[in-house]
Amino acid sequence: VSTQSTGNSCSRAMANNSQAEQVVIPRNFLLLDEYDHAIGKEGKSLIDEQHQGLINYGLDDSRDDVYLHYWSGIIIGPQGSQIGECMYSVDIFVPDNYPDVPPVIRFNGTKIAMNCVNRDTGEVDVSRIEDAKGNRFQWHPRGGSIAAVLQALRTNMHQSRVAKESAEIAGQSY
Question: For residues 156, 45, 41 and 76, what is the CA-based torsion angle, rounded to 10 degrees?
């Protein structure tokens, strides 16, 4: 038996002959929790130690957005590389069906040369983000976060070809 409600109410699904319940946490509750982590409330953070101080994100304060759609962030390139002194700004849009689907991320300002980034628009194809070994980032519905995508992007920046190709487009903007 399955029951579902709409809006900000929890959805509950009951297994056929089981008493186990699965509670789906509403999107805005998840985003409010992530916001607390993004601002470091009570010392919380979703950013791993290796990226601490090099990724910053939060709600876009320039918009009146009660649905928590619009966020912004900054990613500082890998230290010791040609892009290590660059601060990359990103616009983040969190769709209504988040966290079943990942946030939409778009670089703005300084261009970066990454296979997962559209060279004309700066929009990120989350399914094409790679780590240093070429393994693809996997979005985990109901388990992913904005922070996870931003960290995957910064990890992807560690590929030597990213620094090399980004140096070739230095000074260009989206």
Answer: -30
